[in-house]
Amino acid sequence: MSDKKYAFTARQSEHKADGGRTTVTYCETILECKECWDKTCYTVPESGIYHFSLSFVRDQQQSADDGKFGSADDTSIDIFVNDKPKATAYAGESSGRQTGTVSVTLELKKCDVVTTKDWNVKAAFRRLRLCYFTGFKI
Predict the structure, then answer these.
(1) What pTM did the predictor assign?
(2) Is the pLDDT reported for residue 22 higher than 70?
(3) What would the 3-class secondary structure string for the chain be?
């Protein structure tokens, strides 16, 4: 059993997307052990059991910088492993702001790639604020 510590936490203050599924790029890495995180994906350094959590705020308000309103429709961010969805954080339809959160524990193999991708039921313009993504080996 390895005693190496593998962990990361990343933050995105504002993610904007239009159309289909979009990979979330995180602007800030808060914690990173062992350099396996590159702001869009986590490459598994060692086979084992890993825990991931994700939370976000979907914002329907008008943006001051581009004048666009974010979608009030159902919006989600999925955690993918090797391009296959494994867990979904979901913010339901409503005006204003809604939150989504999910946690998942997975058995992963060395070199598996973990990413997050957003999605909107109508593929409409969406604005996500304060998105956090964390992962670590148990």
Answers:
(1) 0.85
(2) yes
(3) CCCCCCEEEEEEEEEEECCCCEECCCCEEEEEECCCECCCEEECCCCEEEEEEEEEEEECCECCCCCCECCCCCEEEEEEECCEEEEEEEECCCCCEEEEEEEEEEEECCCCEEEEEEEECCCCCEEEEEEEEEEEEC
